[in-house]
Every structure is written in structure tokens, then in C-alpha cells.
């Protein structure tokens, strides 16, 4: 978001600053690594467009930040250098399957995997990408943690949200509640409309019939 100067329509002799959405394409890994504050909106765009002419994509919305871990000048910091970034986007590589290793804790001064080395200014345009997201929070124990810590205010995570991916809200096609009794055939469309959804629209796997020892 950026501010632009404009004349106030109701008072032309006055100026106002109004917010304006600006777009910026991040072309390299260095540009797409955010140690501190992230842009308010950041999303991965595909090469296809929806019917409104907008690029289909997914927005990443980080709910909580882990904050500072150890000083970057620390001799052990490279072992947990993934924690430098709220979000870092890199090209997908088979030789970079994880951001750390269980062996880093044994010798943090010479780590087996140093995530900071993944970010080497390679281009990320029209490439298969990986979004490395660090989410967390600092919890200092207090008396209200007894007998158990409340979850309110202690949530952690991120959201991966469709952003112009669909032409409209897909939930409007969700079926209403269905009620049927044990005497009715739940596989019949007139009883259970959900039973007639196409196989591709089902979120459940198709399990084959299961039998065991005659049962």
C-alpha cells in the first residue's frame, strides 16, 4: 500500500492522502525473502486468469511471527538461519528438501544444513517454487497458565487463501444440510443429493469394501 496526493473533491483547495494498492513482481529469491516486516498482501500468481481478467493465485497470510531468535552475529545462528525469515520463497530443488536437519543441534557451529545458503538471488519467475514460512510466538509463563494455558491469544500459523483463483465464492455451491432416516436409501439421489456429486467433486477418498475374517 502507498499513499498518493489528491485534491479533496468537496474542498478543491485542500489536499488529501489516500491509500492506493500498488503491484510489484518479485523476480529473485533475495527479493522474496522477508526477515522482518512483510507486505500486507503477498500472493503467488499463475499464468492463467479468471473471467474477470485477474491472475489466478494464492495469498499467503501469516497469522503470527516468531520474533527474534538469536543475534545474526552469533556463531550458532547459521544452524537456525531459517528463523531469520517470516517468509522466504526459493526455487524448488531436490537437494533442498528441508530447511534444517536434526544433526544441526549436535554441532550448531558447523551445521549440516544452513537455510541461509538456499537464498542466492536465483530467479523465481515462471519456476516451481517453495514458500518457507516461519510461524510462532513468544510465551512467557504467568499465573493464568495454571492449571492449563488458554489458547485464546496464543494461536499460531498461517493461511493459504485463494486470491482471484475462482470466478466467485465457491462455497455458494455447497449443498444444504441433508436429513434421512435409517429406513431410507442414502445412496438414492432423491434422498441424499450429496450422493450424486461427481467423483471429482468429492473430498473423500474412494475406499474399496473392507472385509476381515468374514465380517
From TrEMBL:
In terms of InterPro entries, this protein maps to: Cu_Am_Ox_Cu-bd, Cu_amine_oxidase, Cu_amine_oxidase_C, Cu_amine_oxidase_C_sf
Q: What class of enzyme is it?
A: oxidoreductase
SUPFAM superfamilies attached here?
Answer: Amine oxidase catalytic domain (SSF49998)
UniProt domain Copper amine oxidase catalytic: residue ranges: 12-172
| EC number(s) from the headed UniProt entry | 1.4.3.-
Q: Name one GO molecular function term.
A: quinone binding
Gene Ontology biological process terms from the UniProt entry: amine metabolic process
Keywords from UniProt, A to Z, are: Copper, Metal-binding, Oxidoreductase, TPQ
Q: PROSITE patterns of this UniProt entry?
A: COPPER_AMINE_OXID_2
Q: How is the cofactor bound?
A: Contains 1 topaquinone per subunit.
Source taxon at top rank: Eukaryota
Q: Does the keyword Oxidoreductase apply?
A: yes
Q: Keyword Metal-binding, does the record have it?
A: yes
PTM comment, free text: Topaquinone (TPQ) is generated by copper-dependent autoxidation of a specific tyrosyl residue.
User: What is its cofactor?
Assistant: Cu cation
Q: Name one GO cellular component term.
A: plasma membrane
Provide the family line: Belongs to the copper/topaquinone oxidase family.
Q: Protein name, please? A: Amine oxidase
Organism of this sequence = Strigops habroptila (Kakapo)
